[in-house]
Amino acid sequence: AYNLSLRDLEEMMAERGITVDHTTIHRWTVRFSPLLLERFNRRKRSVTGKWHVDETYIKVRGQWMYLYRAIDGVGDTVEFWFSEQRDLPAAKRFFRKALERHGRPDRVVIDGSQTNHEAIVSCDTTSRLQDRARRRLKPIRIRR
Do 50 and 19 form a contact (C-beta atoms < 8 A)? Predict the structure, then answer.
């Protein structure tokens, strides 16, 4: 059983007959991490147009927090957000972050939470758009 420290990786490679210093592994990490991230992001599946949004109360490192989470129609996590409060500002921050990163969904399915409903309505800018091409966008459909 190994951890993933650089010295442990050096030891694992030595067991397999490869002599390499831990500083070399660090240089490889610095050099190749951005390239790997770029390739992973190219292969990443895009988010579907239907999001299921919910929040739950969980314990994180001994402290109770709210976990806001959006899941797309395939079951992949779109976005998540931890908050100490379950209120409108926290829900708005979550939805703004999700919309900035992943674009606008066609439909959002929520539980009966009025807070989530208000946050979605306030973050959906389709009623305030002036551009003709964007005016054709329908408001986000919310299903409870």
Answer: no
